[in-house]
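User: Here's a chain of 175 residues. Predict its fold as tokens.
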Amino acid sequence: MQFNVSTLLKESVGATRQYEVDEPIVIDDQGHRERVTGSATFLRTKAGVLVTAHLQGNSREKCSRCLRELDYHLSIDVEEEFLETVDATTGAPLPQLDEPNAFRIDAHHTVDLGEAVRQYWATVLPMQPLCRPDCLGLCPRCGRDLNEGPCGCPSEEADERWAALADLKISQEGS
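Assistant: Prediction complete.
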């Protein structure tokens, strides 16, 4: 997801460009790729280019309870400023600002949105994806998917230390 912004950098502050995005990006440390679509607006700022993008994609995940495969539709709103490293007119290196984690425009005047989108993608993924809110998960003994029905495992006997709480629960359910 690379965009050459050399002509935009030569224009005055406030100049804009619109781009359509439809590309696969690397979304994790294992190198998995997912297609991302949407639009991006590039705005010339004093220090570089402000990128505002509205993107969509699908992520293949596993339910954290029953391990079924599921697709998540993600909407990502990216807003990041990419700072110039080289003057677009003279080609001279610019002094580095004291922002070590800032996104930069490379020496060839290219904005690479890949890393920014990957970071935003990670923030919108659910921490514990579920195939449905009432997913019953897997039996801890035999591993059967309890969403498909009960398994044949014998029920565990309750620990006597919890008997008073069980009685309390039963009495509250009856009232």
